[in-house]
Structures are given as structure tokens and as C-alpha cells.
């Protein structure tokens, strides 16, 4: 049981990081980014490259993946989205553009995995880092590191958004872009910032992901569903939503499925993704703006004095 | 070369059907149906789940569903090879059932729109479609899941090497009928209300129309049409395997086609489908030569994804409104007025 | 509008024309050389990508050997392999077959999964192409073949599940295990093999305590629910039978490495024997975790193949790692395909599927006898009336500190395990 809990926590932490990026770019640019999961796989491959070529432990490569991920996020915005936004493309068009971008990333990842295999003389698809993981008093490193990453990210975001002038401008332009623009705030900066962070967080999560599961070029296609579920359950209009949603979806995918399997037999276990999807549908139907959009949440927020 | 052209035409026809149905829902009605794959799957479900069970029952075959389907499909194929009319009869029967089943599935899946709209509605439809897909994939009892089930070859009377052409003709006829039907349907007051719904729901309400009813009607129609594509595809491949109905092929690509061709313009969508399938197949076909030409250090398959993605982005970028723009709706009264004072 | 349509039409025509010229000249370097084109329908990006890449590597080695043979015998042929990524999607597999056929390809290796084979099967019959799958093992009825006639152009150089199911059951009994838990990959391959195993186990006096599926599409990120479930079952079994009489049968692919990496060091699961299958035999990924896997043995059955050491060395030097069983089978498949194709051309002057099926029979005999200078890497090839691998022995491999070691053989004739000393 404790293993299930640990596994669920690691997965939730990573989902939070991935969903944060998705929610943020949705708030600033108004487009659900279908390439979000592929960002993570790019991160995994960066970490793998550093591991194979210079023997760097993937945990230590996090700063590198963070920066390269940020650049990836920015280039997504500059190459795939900005030209379209300039031409006043509809939101569906932007969505499809992120899909095309996802396809490009998928092709690049695949081609790169082959180039890397030729160098390392190993098949560089379907890899895991789990055997490299450390262990403190029975707690696996992936839990410690992923929790630390989430904590640092939240702390960093809190300080930035609530304690700096840039943060205030940022929040203003996230909440009401046109008003913010009228006040002389550069909305474009907000977008750049959100795309940088979105890519950076996703790639960072990607370098931890192989500690938990095997990576193949297609992994992004499989996990993107969970990321969307997390962002939507939490509420797409609020950054904190990603945090809440990530934990709910992450925990329900393994822990809730496991509990159901005790009640209904092991056949339920294969339907773990179905369960998170059903949770997402239920949330949206009961409260479209997600958990952070509820009146309850407002009160919690006021109580927290945010 | 003939094979390539046939393949292009066949998938062109299939994507015309699916994309036109999406254009009805999304292009005209403004419903972002990101669960399009579900309606195509419904068509497959009808053939694999209902027709096969009927055949098994008719032939009195014992044993597990998947093996029994193989046998039933085989026996039926034998019969059809002697008797073309039975084959076509089965096809029409399945299309009718698929239309009914598709309409029901579409009508049910749009119910959440009572509370949702825009991207939220889209993502919810996507999730519903994905849930059905996953359940059908892992449960091998319904339509064989990941094993899949065989279905009879309804054109078994055509000699082997010509059968692909026959299916292509069949698909093209279906696509043409769907196109003519939708052109007629949408150049009518219904089409106009639908566009009104896309632009401003409240306006439609103010005119005393039931918005929910309109949406249910539209989705039922759209899904019913897309289900036909599922039926054609399943007979063509002689099997129903659930993984063939994933979200990329049957939801995202149709969206790309509609946006490429021009939202709300059926002609544009047909053109978009043609360009899309042509590009995709040509890249697929010539990728080995490109790889050879450029001396790439990796397999050509990756090149195919990259090139296709870049082309899609370029087209979106240079034609954000689609290849053909939306045209006004010509209902008979408007047409007659245009005639009298041009 | 019509101007645009016209423009697009002209463009398309131009492209197609260019294509015709291109394929026309692309027929191969010198005019006297004939190119034998073989399509390879593999998975490069999904859950079977390691098998897909491995198959491609083995095909490359086979291509070299075959071309050397052609050169030595002054035969004017060349082999061209066209690998495709089907992503295990039957729809894509069929599309790729048709596209490749448009390029004049009539010979195929693959597809890897049984559901793809099922979709491709009717097409092989109506369009007369020869397909050899190196890894689809579902029983013929499950892939839609109810009579040998339907499968006459589709070969599978791997034995179907019933044979290996029995070998595994027999192996489990021979290890002294009385109570097992089966964990299987929920797809056509995993379910087929695990059901055959489950069916055979009671005949060998083994009780199946639990039968657990895990998803295949995608396989789980977090294995802890499965680990916990297995631990509970194993604990109960140990309490009633003692730990020597309890085992876990794992029917899956290399995701097993992820599973093992998540099993805690002190888990009860590492105290019992594990039994695998050809899905993981000689897997490098599982070997990386040998401090855990060697504890449980991972006794895995694989279609008996001598797998000459020099070939394995050659593979390692070139690509790193070891060839998997399916890869070795595809090496043999390419030999049989190309040789039978050449014989067909020599006797008929052109490709003819029906002649070729006859030639394949002859070529298999010659190949078995080593007439081409090599012998089948996967052992003697004998096919049944369904063109599937008919009978044969299974080698049993286990993980030790020194890597994968051959520990015994399951004999088809005696249905017993012979352990090597």
C-alpha cells in the first residue's frame, strides 16, 4: 500500500509540473497546448544524452534541461503560434498548430533517438533511469526530488507573482489582458514568460519521468491525456488549479484504481486512464471552471490572504 | 503508381465524409467536436459488434466471439463471392444501422453542452471519445478489442486484385452522396440558423429557437454521417481492430482538413481533404528517396512526421482563413432575388 | 476558385510525373542488377520499438550476408529494405503495405503484432503478396484464418502460443512450483500466451492463484498497484505452501524492467521464482537490473535456437546489445524470402505468388541443410499447414550474475525439461 502511495505521489508531482505549464500558457495565450507532453519527452532525451555522453546523473542535469526546455517553449511560441496570432487565427487553428508542432517534435525525437543509438551502440528508445535512483531511509529519490521541484517551483512562482513588480504586471495581464494593456503593461512579455516557464517546467519533469516509467518517442501521446485532465479538473483559469488537479488526477490514476481493484477485482487495473478521464468529465459537468473556480476555493483563497 | 493513386483516392473519400460531417458540426454549427473519432468508431462497432453477432447466430457457430467471427466472416464471404446482391445488401443494412447508431451516439455525447461551450466542450467530447475507445480496446468481448474481429468481405465477388479499386469506387460514391446531401441541407434555412448559432447563441434563443435541440440535431446528423465512413473503412480492411480508430487519425486530421479547406465551406473542405491526403501519401511514398537524396543518418519514417508537421504549419500560417472562404447561403428565395436584380 | 483548383491539379500532376520518373530511375544502380525490395512493417516509436529496431538491425545483417552470397555466386541481385513505422496501428500497417506495393514491393517482413497481421491478412490474399511475420503468435483463428487456404501467403516463423504455453506450464511444474500468480500484458500477444499457459497449468498440477492484467497502451508508469497486488497474492501462497513452491509468471515485454526497478529491495516478490517468456528473453533492459532479476531467475522460454556466438558478437560490435529472438527469426525470414523470390524469378521470369509459395517450401529445405552457406539462426524451420512454425524445442534461459545463461531445454517430443549442468 505504501508503495502505491509513493508511486502515486511521484506521478502527481510530475503531473503538477506539466499541468502548470499547460495552464499558464492557456491563461496567457488562450490555447491548450497539445505538445505539452512532448516537451517532457524532449527533457527526458536531453537528460539521457547527458547521462550517456558525460555520465551525468539525470537529477544533476535538471538545470540544463530547465534552460533548454525554456528555449523549446519560447521557440514553440515564436515558430508555431506567433505568426498565427498575428494573423488573428482562431483558437481551434492554434490548437491544430500545436498538434502540428507536436508531430514535428515527435519526428525530431525519433530521429534523434536513432542518431544517439548510433553513437552509444545501444537502442535509445524505451529507457528508464530507475536503477540509478538513490534511496534515503526507504524513500526513493524520485519522490524526494520531484517533491522538491514542486515546492521550489511554487515558492519561486509565489515570490515572483506576489512580491515583485514584474509579478504584479504579470498577474494583471493574466487576469485581464486588454485592461492590462490599456494600463501600459506589455502583454507580450507575459506570453514569453509563460512559454519559457512552460517548456522549462515540462522538460524538468521530463528528466525525472524516466525514473518512474519507460520512455519511448510515443510516450507523449499517451500521457498528454492525463495532463489535460489535471489542468481541467483543477481549473484552467487559475495557476493553482494545476496544483490541485495534478494531485487529484495523479492520485486517482494509481491509488483510486488500486482501491477499486480491491473491491472489484484486478481486472479494473487496466482502466486507470479511463478513471482519470471520467473524473475529468464529471468535474467539468459539475463545475466547468474546475475546482479553483468554485466559491469554496474563493473562500480558501481569502483565508490564505492571497 | 496505380496503387498510390487508388490509395490517395480511397482515403480522400473517407476523409471527405468525416471532414464534411465535422464541417457541419464545427464549421457551420460552431460545435468543437473533438470526439469525432467516436462517431467513426460507432460505425465500426455496428459492423463488428452487431453484424458479426447476427451472422454467428445465423450460422449457428459455437465458441468464443473472436474465433467465431473469423468463421462467420469466412462463410459470409464465400456466399457473397457467388452472390453480389447479398454483399451490397449487407453493406446497405450496415450503413442504415450505423446511421441510426451514430445519430444516437452523437445526440447523447452533446448533452454536456447544456453546461459547457468552447474549448471546454471540445476537451470534454475528446475525453468521452477516449473513454469509449479505451473500454473497447481493453474489453475483448465487445468487438474483439486489441485482437479485433474479422468481418465479411462484401465485395468478394470482385476478383482479388481489383477489389481495392472497387472499394475505392464505393467510398467515392458514398463521399459524393454525402457531399450532395450536405450541400442541399446546408443551403437552406437550417444552414443559416446553424451559422447563427455559431456566431451568437443568444440571438437564436431570442428568435425562439431551442438551442439545445438544434445542437442535438446537428450532432446526431454529423455523427451519423461520420459513422458511414467507419463502415466503409471496416469493410475495406476486412476487420475491426479498435486501435485503428485513434484520435490522431480520425479527430485531429479531420480538424486540420476543415481548417485547411475553409471553415463553413463544403467545397473548401473537399479541396482540403484532397490536399491533405495527397501531401500525406506523397511524403509517405517518397520519403525513402528524400532520405537517400539527403543522406540522412536516420530512418525515413521520422522525416515523414517532421515534413508533414512543417507543411501543416506553413499552410495554417499562409491561409489562416482556409483555402476557400465562407460563402453566403443561397436559399431559393435569395437565389430568385439574385436572379431578378443581380 | 476554379483557377485555384486547376493550379493545384497541375501541381499534383507534376508531382506524380516527377514521381514516375523518379521510381523509374530508382530501380537500382546498374541496369543488369535487379533489386529485391522487401518492406519491413515495424514499430519504431511505440511499446515494441526495441523489437522494431532490433528487427531492423538483424535485417541489415541478413541483407549483407545475402548480398555477399549473391556476389560469390555471380548473381545479379541486390536487396533493398524499406522499413516503415506502423506504430502497431492496424490501419497504418495496411496503408503502408499498399503504399509499398505502389513502389513495387511484393515481399514483406512483419507486422509485429497480431492485430496488424489480422488486418493485413485479407489483403495478402486478394493482392497476392508474401508476408512473413517474425513475432505474431496468436492462434490462427484469432487472426481471422479459419482454413490454411486463407493464410497461404502469410507466414509466421514463430510458433503460436499453444506450444509455448505448454512449455511454460511444464517448466513451472519442473521447478517444483505448485502455486502461481500470472501477470500479463493486456494485448493480443500477452492475453493469447497467458491464456494458453493458464489452460495448461492444471494438467501439470499447478494452481493459478491470480490472473492479473496490466495495460499495454500505454503500459503503466507507476507499477506499485501491481506490485502490491502481487505481494498480497504471493504472501498468501507462501503461507500455505512455503516459498519454494510459489512462483510468478510474467508474460510481458521489456516494460518488465520498469516493473522490476520499482520492486523494493526487501519485497517478498524477490524471494520466489519468476518465470518469463520469449517476450523478455535475453533482454538487455532486464539484465541491467540483475541484482534483482538474478535473485528470482527470470526463467524464460524461447524457441530453441543455436544463435551462433559469432553472430551475436557481430551484432554487438555493430549495434551494441544482443539480438532478440524475434530479430533472429527475421534474419531467417529475409533469407527465405529473397532466395525463394530469386528462384521464382529464375523459373518464371517474373513474380508469381503461387509459384513462390512452392519455392518457399523448397528454399526452407535448402536453408535448413545449409546449402546457402548459413544455417537458420533460429533452428530448423518446420512449418505446419497454416504456415506457422510447427513444432520445436524451447530453450530456457535465466538471469544470473554473469548475464543471461541457457539453463535447460524443453523437448517437444517428451514434453519434459532437460536441465543443463
UniProtKB/TrEMBL annotation, chain A:
One of the GO biological process terms: amino acid transport
Residues spanning the membrane: 6-27, 34-54, 60-81, 93-119, 139-161, 192-212, 218-237, 244-264, 270-288
Membrane topology: Multi-pass membrane protein
Signal sequence residues: none
Stated name of the protein: Branched-chain amino acid ABC transporter permease
Family membership noted in the UniProt record: Belongs to the binding-protein-dependent transport system permease family. LivHM subfamily.
PANTHER family: BRANCHED-CHAIN AMINO ACID TRANSPORT PERMEASE PROTEIN LIVH-RELATED (PTHR11795:SF449), BRANCHED-CHAIN AMINO ACID TRANSPORT SYSTEM PERMEASE PROTEIN LIVH (PTHR11795)
Chief localization: membrane
Pfam families according to UniProt: BPD_transp_2 (PF02653)
Annotated InterPro entries: ABC_transp_permease, BCAA_transport_permease
Annotated localization: Cell membrane
UniProt keyword annotations, A-Z: Amino-acid transport, Cell membrane, Membrane, Transmembrane, Transmembrane helix, Transport
GO MF assignments: transmembrane transporter activity
GO cellular component: plasma membrane
Automatic annotation (TrEMBL), chain B:
Transmembrane segments: 6-26, 38-59, 85-108, 120-138, 164-182, 219-238, 300-318
Domain of life: Archaea
InterPro entries, sorted: ABC_transp_permease, LivM-like
GO molecular function: branched-chain amino acid transmembrane transporter activity
UniProt keyword annotations, A-Z: Cell membrane, Membrane, Transmembrane, Transmembrane helix
Subcellular location: Cell membrane
Topology in the lipid bilayer: Multi-pass membrane protein
One Pfam family it belongs to: BPD_transp_2
GO cellular component: plasma membrane
Name listed for the protein in its UniProt record: Branched-chain amino acid ABC transporter permease
TrEMBL record, chain C:
Top-level division of the source organism's lineage: Archaea
InterPro entries: ANF_lig-bd_rcpt, BCAA_transport, Peripla_BP_I
Gene3D superfamilies, per the entry: 3.40.50.2300
SUPFAM superfamilies: Periplasmic binding protein-like I (SSF53822)
Gene Ontology terms: cellular component: membrane
Keyword Transmembrane helix recorded: yes
Entry's localization field: Membrane
Residues of the Receptor ligand binding region domain: 61-401
Record keywords, A-Z: Membrane, Transmembrane, Transmembrane helix
Positions of transmembrane segments: none
Protein's name in the database: ABC transporter substrate-binding protein
Highest classification ranks of the organism: Archaea, Methanobacteriati, Methanobacteriota, Methanomada group, Methanococci
Amino acid at each position: 500500500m505504501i508503495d502505491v502511495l509513493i508511486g502515486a505521489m511521484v506521478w502527481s508531482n510530475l503531473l503538477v509540473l506539466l499541468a502548470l505549464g499547460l495552464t499558464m500558457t492557456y491563461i496567457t495565450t488562450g490555447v491548450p497546448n497539445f505538445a505539452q507532453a512532448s516537451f517532457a519527452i524532449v527533457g527526458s532525451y536531453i537528460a539521457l544524452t547527458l547521462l550517456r555522453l558525460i555520465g551525468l546523473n539525470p537529477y544533476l542535469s535538471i538545470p540544463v534541461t530547465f534552460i533548454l526546455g525554456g528555449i523549446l517553449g519560447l521557440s514553440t511560441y515564436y515558430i508555431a503560434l506567433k505568426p498565427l496570432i498575428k494573423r488573428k487565427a482562431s483558437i481551434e487553428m492554434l490548437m491544430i498548430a500545436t498538434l502540428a508542432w507536436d508531430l514535428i517534435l515527435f519526428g525530431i525525437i525519433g530521429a534523434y533517438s536513432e542518431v544517439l543509438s548510433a553513437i552509444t551502440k545501444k537502442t535509445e528508445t524505451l529507457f528508464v533511469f530507475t536503477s540509478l535512483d538513490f534511496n534515503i531511509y526507504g524513500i526513493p529519490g524520485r519522490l524526494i526530488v520531484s517533491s522538491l521541484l514542486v515546492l521550489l517551483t511554487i515558492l519561486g512562482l509565489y515570490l515572483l507573482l506576489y512580491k515583485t513588480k514584474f509579478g504584479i504586471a504579470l498577474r494583471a495581464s493574466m487576469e485581464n489582458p486588454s485592461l492590462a494593456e490599456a494600463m501600459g503593461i506589455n502583454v507580450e512579455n507575459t506570453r514569453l514568460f509563460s512559454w519559457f516557464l512552460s517548456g522549462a517546467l515540462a522538460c524538468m519533469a521530463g528528466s525525472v519521468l524516466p525514473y518512474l516509467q519507460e520512455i519511448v518517442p510515443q510516450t507523449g501521446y499517451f500521457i498528454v491525456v492525463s495532463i489535460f485532465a489535471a489542468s481541467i479538473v483543477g481549473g484552467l483559469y487559475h495557476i493553482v488549479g494545476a496544483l490541485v488537479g495534478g494531485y487529484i488526477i495523479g492520485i486517482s490514476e494509481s491509488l483510486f484504481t488500486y482501491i477499486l481493484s480491491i473491491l472489484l477485482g484486478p481486472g479494473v487495473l487496466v482502466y486507470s486512464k479511463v478513471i482519470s478521464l471520467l473524473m475529468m468529465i464529471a468535474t467539468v459537468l459539475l463545475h466547468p471552471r474546475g475546482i479553483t473556480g468554485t466559491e469554496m476555493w474563493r473562500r480558501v483563497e481569502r483565508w490564505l490572504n492571497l | 503508381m496505380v496503387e498510390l493513386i487508388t490509395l490517395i483516392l480511397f482515403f480522400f473519400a473517407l476523409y471527405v465524409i468525416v471532414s464534411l460531417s465535422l464541417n457541419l458540426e464545427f464549421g457551420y454549427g460552431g460545435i468543437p467536436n473533438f470526439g469525432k473519432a467516436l462517431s467513426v468508431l460507432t460505425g465500426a462497432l455496428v459492423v463488428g459488434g452487431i453484424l458479426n453477432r447476427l451472422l454467428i447466430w445465423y450460422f449457428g457457430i459455437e465458441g468464443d466471439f473472436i474465433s467465431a467471427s473469423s468463421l462467420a466472416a469466412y462463410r459470409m464471404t464465400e456466399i457473397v463471392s457467388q452472390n453480389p446482391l447479398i454483399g451490397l445488401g449487407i453493406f446497405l443494412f450496415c450503413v442504415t444501422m450505423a446511421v441510426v447508431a451514430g445519430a444516437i451516439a452523437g445526440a447523447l455525447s452533446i448533452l454536456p453542452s447544456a453546461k459547457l461551450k468552447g474549448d471546454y466542450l471540445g476537451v470534454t467530447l475528446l475525453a468521452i471519445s477516449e473513454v469509449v475507445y479505451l473500454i473497447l480496446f481493453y474489453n475483448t468481448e465487445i468487438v474483439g478489442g486489441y485482437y479485433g474481429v474479422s468481418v465479411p468481405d462484401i465485395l468478394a465477388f470482385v476478383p482479388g486484385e481489383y477489389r481495392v479499386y472497387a472499394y475505392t469506387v464505393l467510398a467515392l460514391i458514398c463521399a459524393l452522396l454525402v457531399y450532395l446531401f450536405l450541400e442541399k441541407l446546408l443551403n437552406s434555412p437550417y444552414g443559416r440558423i446553424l451559422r447563427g448559432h455559431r456566431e451568437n447563441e443568444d440571438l437564436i434563443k431570442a428568435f425562439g429557437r431551442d438551442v439545445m435541440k438544434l445542437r442535438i440535431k446537428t450532432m446526431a446528423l454529423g455523427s451519423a454521417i461520420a459513422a458511414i465512413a467507419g463502415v466503409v473503412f471496416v469493410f475495406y480492411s476486412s476487420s475491426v481492430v479498435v486501435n485503428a480508430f485513434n484520435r490522431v487519425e480520425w479527430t485531429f486530421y479531420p480538424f486540420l482538413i476543415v481548417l485547411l479547406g475553409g471553415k463553413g465551406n463544403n467545397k473548401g473542405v473537399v479541396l482540403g481533404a484532397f490536399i491533405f491526403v495527397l501531401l500525406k501519401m506523397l511524403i509517405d511514398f517518397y520519403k525513402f528517396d528524400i532520405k537517400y537524396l539527403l543522406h540522412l543518418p536516420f530512418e525515413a519514417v521520422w522525416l515523414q512526421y517532421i515534413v508533414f508537421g512543417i507543411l501543416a504549419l506553413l499552410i495554417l500560417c499562409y491561409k489562416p482563413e482556409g483555402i476557400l472562404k465562407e460563402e453566403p447561403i443561397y436559399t431559393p428565395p435569395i437565389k430568385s432575388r439574385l436572379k431578378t436584380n443581380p | 476558385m476554379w483557377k485555384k483548383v486547376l493550379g493545384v491539379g497541375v501541381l499534383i500532376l507534376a508531382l506524380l510525373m516527377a514521381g514516375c520518373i523518379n521510381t523509374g530511375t530508382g530501380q537500382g544502380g546498374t541496369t543488369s542488377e535487379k533489386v529485391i525490395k522487401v518492406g519491413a512493417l515495424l514499430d519504431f516509436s511505440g511499446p515494441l520499438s526495441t523489437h522494431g529496431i532490433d528487427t531492423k538491425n538483424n535485417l541489415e545483417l541478413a541483407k549483407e550476408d545475402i548480398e555477399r552470397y549473391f556476389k560469390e555466386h555471380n548473381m545479379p541481385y541486390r536487396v533493398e529494405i524499406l522499413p516503415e513505422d506502423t506504430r502497431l496501428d492496424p490501419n497504418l500497417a495496411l496503408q503502408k503495405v499498399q503504399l509499398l506495393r505502389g513502389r513495387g514491393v511484393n515481399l514483406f517482413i512483419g507486422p509485429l503484432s497480431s492485430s496488424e497481421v489480422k488486418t493485413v491478412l485479407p489483403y495478402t490474399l486478394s493482392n497476392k503478396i508474401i508476408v512473413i511475420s517474425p513475432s505474431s503468435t496468436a492462434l490462427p483463428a484469432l487472426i481471422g484464418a479459419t482454413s490454411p487456404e486463407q493464410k497461404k501467403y502469410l507466414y509466421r516463423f514463430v510458433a503460436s502460443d499453444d506450444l509455448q504455453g505448454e512449455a511454460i506450464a511444464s517448466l513451472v511444474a519442473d521447478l517444483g512450483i505448485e502455486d502461481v500468480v500470472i501477470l500479463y500484458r493486456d494485448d493480443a500477444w500477452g492475453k493469447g500466451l497467458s491464456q494458453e499457459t493458464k489452460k495448461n497449468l492444471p494438467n501439470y498440477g499447478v494452481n493459478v492463484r491470480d490472473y492479473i492484467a496490466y495495460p499495454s497502451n500505454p503500459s503503466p508508469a507507476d507499477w506499485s498497484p501491481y506490485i502490491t497486488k502481487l505481494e498480497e497474492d504471493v504472501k498468501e501462497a507462501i503461507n500455505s505452501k512455503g516459498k519454494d513452491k510459489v512462483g510468478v509468471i510474467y508474460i510481458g515485454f521489456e516494460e518488465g524492467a520498469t516493473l522490476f526497478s520499482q520492486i523494493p529491495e526487501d519485497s517478498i516478490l524477490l524471494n520466489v521464482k519468476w518465470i518469463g517468456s520469449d517476450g523478455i528473453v535475453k533482454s538487455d533492459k532486464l539484465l541491467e537490473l540483475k541484482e534483482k532479476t538474478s535473485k528470482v531467475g527470470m526463467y524464460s522460454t524461447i524457441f530453441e535456437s543455436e544463435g551462433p556466438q559469432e553472430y551475436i558478437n557481430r551484432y554487438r560490435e555493430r549495434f551494441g546489445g544482443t539480438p532478440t529472438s524475434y530479430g533472429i527469426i527475421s534474419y531467417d525470414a529475409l533469407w527465405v524470402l529473397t532466395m525463394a523470390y530469386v528462384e521464382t524469378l529464375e523459373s518464371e521470369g517474373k513474380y508469381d505468388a503461387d509459384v513462390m509459395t512452392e519455392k518457399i517450401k523448397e528454399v526452407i529445405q535448402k536453408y535448413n541443410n545449409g546449402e546457402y552457406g548459413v544455417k537458420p539462426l533460429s533452428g530448423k524451420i518446420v512449418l505446419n499447414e497454416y504456415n506457422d512454425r510447427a513444432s520445436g524445442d524451447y530453450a530456457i534461459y535465466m538471469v544470473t550474475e554473469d548475464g543471461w545463461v541457457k539453463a535447460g531445454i524443453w523437448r517437444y517430443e517428451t514434453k519434459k525439461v532437460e536441465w543443463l549442468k
